[in-house]
Structure formats: C-alpha cells, structure tokens
C-alpha cells in the first residue's frame, strides 16, 4: 500500500461513515414487517384522531340530550349511538383517546427514563450498589401491579396527576429489572473489557458500549409495557380512581356504560374495543420492534 | 512504503534501553472467593498463585497449559481488568502504582494492549468497524479527524481496505476479518506489548496461518513484543522465542522454546508434549500420557500441584512446594531437577536431562 493510496482512502471513508446508520436500518426492517406497519398505522390513526378531537368530533363530548339517551349504533347523527345521558359516544371515544393515551403512555415514558437509568447503573455497579437497588426493587415485585397501582392511587387520591404517579411507581421496578439484567449480560462481553482496557472513562464506556446495546431490550419491553399501562390506567378510571366524571376517558366510559349492558350491550362494548385495540397494537408493535432491532437479522 | 504504526504522540518512549526487560512480573496472585451455599465457608480458587516472569524487548513469550491453568487470568491481571491480590507489574522498568517513578494504569494501558480470543463477542455489535478501531484513540483524547485517519491506516495495515470495511458491522465480517479488526484496535494507541489471548485459536487453519503471518510482519516492522497464549502447542512453538508452561496457577517450566520442546524438564511438560498427536507411526502412543482432569484449584494443599497426576510423585512432592531451579537456560519447578530436594530420582533425571543437552 502506498502513501498516495492511503491518503485517497481517507475522504471516502468519511463518506462511507454517512452510510445508513443503525436506526435507519431498524426503520427499514420495520417497514418490511406487515404486522408492524399495520399496528403502527392503527395507532397513528388513534393518536391523530385524539389530537385532532376538536376538529373531527361531530358533537360536544360532555353535553347531550336526555331525549336521545341510549340510541343504538347507527342512529343518524350519532354514528356510534349515545350514552345514558344522551352524549354522543363517537365524540366521547375520540376525546377519550386523549386522556387514555396520556395516562397509558406517560407513566411508561417516565418509568423507562428512571428505571432504565437506575437499571444500567445497578448493572454496571459493584455488589453493594447493585444489591441495594435490586433488593428495593424486589419489594415492589411482592405486590401484583394492579393492586399496587390501586393502593397508591387510593392513598394519593383522585386525579390524572396521581394516576400517572402511581402507574410510574408501578412500572419503574419492572423496567429497572429488564435494564439491569440486560446490562449485566452486556457488561460481561469481551468488547466491554476491550473498552475498559483502554484509557476510556466509565461514563464513556457506559454511553458508547453499554447503552446502545441495552437500549433495544429496554425499548422493546417499554413498548409492550404501554399495552399493560393502557389497561391498568383504564382500570383505575373504571373504578373511579382516575379522572373526574364529566371528562371522557375510555375506562370511565366503560364504567358509565356498564348499566346499559342489559338494554343495549353493543354500546357498552365500544370503549372496551378501543382499549383492547390500542393495547394489542402496542403489543404487536413491540414484537416487530424486537425483531427489527435484532442486529443479527440484518441481510436475512 | 508502509506507514508506521509507531507515533511519538501516542506510544510510550523506550525508557530502560534494550537490556531492560519490557515486562517484569513478580509473584502475581489472584485468589477468587467462592462460597458454597448461603452458610458455606468462604473458599478460594487459586487461579494465579505466585507467577513471576519477564519478557525481553522484541521477544515473544508463549504461555501454554490446559484449560483453567490461569493463562487468561494472568493476562487480565496484567491489564488490571481483574484486580490482582498481590504481585508487582513492572513495565519498562517502571512499576505499576509505584509512586513517582512508577507507571500509571492509563500509561500502562497505552503501552500494553490485548487481542481477545472470541472475535464474535470482542467487537461491539452496534458499532461500525472504523468506530471500533477509533475508540481507543478517542478515549485517549485524539481528535475525530486524526483518529479517523489513523484508524483507516490501521485497517489498511491489517489487510482490510478501509473503504470496503470501515462502515461495516462486525457480524458482516468473517472470523478472520474480525480478528484483524481486533488486532487493528489493539494497535491503535501504538502499544509496545501486545497480549494475544488465544487470538488465533478459533480460526480455520488456513485463516490462522494468514493471521499469524500478519502478526509476524507487524512484529518485525513495528518492533512489537508479544505475549502469546494458546493451548495449541504447535503454534506456540512456531511463534515463541521463550515458552512458559503453566499448571494450576503456577509456572511449571519457563525457558527458550527450542529447549523446552526438544528436552522438556518438567514431567508435566513432557506429558503435555507427548499428548500432541504425531503422524510418525513410531511416535504414536496407545495410552494418553495424562489422565483425568487437573485437580480442583480450590484451597490446594501444600506441595507440588502436579503430584496427583505425576508418575514420579514421592513424599517430598507432597510435603514441599517445588521452587524454580535453573537447568541451563530453563527454570523448572520440579523436585527432580534439584539434587538437594531429596527426591530419589533427582540425580538420574538431571543427568539424563544434561546428557540430552550435551548430545544436542
């Protein structure tokens, strides 16, 4: 190899360094996954309609006429019928998506940030720090998650903020455990030892070697946790520990329509369909994300 | 014309001159605690138990021994990837952690680097090859452009075209190519001592030969010193100037490769070499020279570690730890090589050994 060849090699390498990155290749693989695309599109539709609720909802979600109470599905003007106080169910479902998605997704985002950070720290720390963090985590695992959420919400009182806090507390230990076990497994790898054998600081090793490799198991788990979170949040609202009554939310709507189950059963199913559909889509998306992020599946 | 890997800005200067051994290790020890059950008494695995050796500048020291003899632990202790319990590490005359005249761990880790055994786990699966080779440079504070140029040069030196390979991921490379990346990364900060921990063991024979040739070229061109660890006795003989035979965390025998391979002085070395399959029908053996596994290294009893499997073991072997004895240029830790040890066959063994030496 001559000097001139060497020098000519360098600029093209910088060009090559701009070749599709890891995240773009994950995106490309996700685009080839039909189930992933379908669930992402359904979720997108739900999120967009919730955001655009004031524009697309046909009626005011909080006012209705007693004259038209419990109209069946397909009633002109009320496509999905009306509830016991005559409010338009379609409008309430669209508006309800706002609170339901907010109380389903926010706790998971918070829990991923808190639990992920603590988990990585625990996984990279020595016996003592790891022991302290993990034993405290174990205490939370002694309670079933719904029971714990109900207990914390009950203590804190009603309201959206308290629901978010209680769900975050429930999910932090779960994310933490996934992050810790992933980190422990990664920290044992030779490439981390190779990085340790250089002059790199602990922080640099953590951010450059460990984080990119534990991120995918944490993100995949968090996505599937949203599915759980949506159901638990709806559950809290169903038993009246969440948002205050007039506000539309799928869980509390399910409770309001509970009485209609004998008169017009199809009506009472509607909020449940929304909860299940969203939850299932997040689960499917989590699966697709898991395989798209598996680096070994590239080029296969 | 080849661009040299050595650079003034990165490498450590030659302090002691050619006579100063590049690495001196004195009485290195690592005892791993193991606990059997919650209430079980704490026991210690004597993984490395009083290992002392030196490596001259430009030399290749080979380490051989069965699995679990402490070869890999020794290398990890040298780089402080595992904290040593006791022992001195002196690099080019400067002791690690030795105060003002000593060498800091950071300096040591620039002067000494390691090529790992398993090429599939030693490269970050989510990093591009060029970034992997750049990492030690970036960690040492080299700016991005310079690090990138140097990484390209290193890839080129190990036979990987930077344009073709720089942007790839480890899983897109073959085992031999990954090991070349490993070598390029180890050489990034211009180390003077490179530890090759089973660096070619997982490769196909033909690829292994390629990588060995590359290592030989790099050594000749860059004046590197190698610590070469392998369980493949043939490869070790090929590449090593001197050889160190380890058994259960201790050195059985250390000396020039030719002498040890032709006239092994320790019964363990003899058995190890006899276990190498031969194509010569006259040399083929029906019975394995070594039976069973090495004994458990947990809390070993005093005396020679090899005595349980040694055909010449006597009372003295059970009572006293054999100290290393010089026989010619070789140091052997065996009572039979010490006339004063009280072993009944000491005189015969030594006479036979010196006679072989005289005949050679």
How would you characterize this protein structure?
The complex is a heterodimer of chains A (300) and B (360). Chain A has 300 residues and is mainly α. Chain A has one domain (23-61, 76-297): Orthogonal Bundle (MetI-like fold). In chain A, 72% of the residues lie in helices and 0% in strands. In chain A, α6 crosses α8, α9 (190-196) crosses α10 and α10 runs parallel beside α11 (250-256). Residues 1-18 of chain A have low confidence and may be disordered. With 360 residues, chain B is α/β, with parallel strands linked by helices. Chain B folds into 2 domains: 23-243, P-loop containing nucleotide triphosphate hydrolases (Rossmann fold); 264-359, no CATH class. Chain B is 32% helix and 20% strand. In chain B, the strands form 2 sheets. Chain B has an 8-stranded mixed beta sheet with strand order 6-7-8-3-9-10-12-11, sandwiched between helices. In chain B, α7 (205-222) links the parallel β7 and β8 (225-229). In chain B, α3 (129-139) crosses α4. The model of chain B has no long low-confidence stretch (mean pLDDT 86). The interface between A and B is large, with 34 and 45 residues.
Order of helices and strands of chain A: HHHHHHHHHHHH
**Count of individual helical segments of chain B:** 12
CATH superfamily of the largest domain in chain B: P-loop containing nucleotide triphosphate hydrolases
The CATH topology annotation of the largest domain in chain B reads as Rossmann fold
If you compute it from the alpha carbons, what radius of gyration of chain A comes out, rounded to the nearest whole angstrom?
A: 24 Å
User: What is the subunit organization of this protein?
Assistant: heterodimer
Instruction: Pick out the low-confidence regions of chain B.
Output: none
Count the strands of chain B?
12
CATH topology of chain A: MetI-like fold
List low-confidence stretches of chain A.
1-18
Helix content of chain B: 25-40%
pLDDT averaged over residues of chain B: 86
CATH class of chain A: Mainly Alpha
Q: Can you tell me the overall shape of chain A?
A: elongated
Radius of gyration of chain B: 22 Å
As for the number of domains of chain A, it is: 1
Q: How many angstroms does the end-to-end distance of chain A come to?
A: 34 Å
Strand content of chain A: under 5%
Number of helical regions of chain A: 12
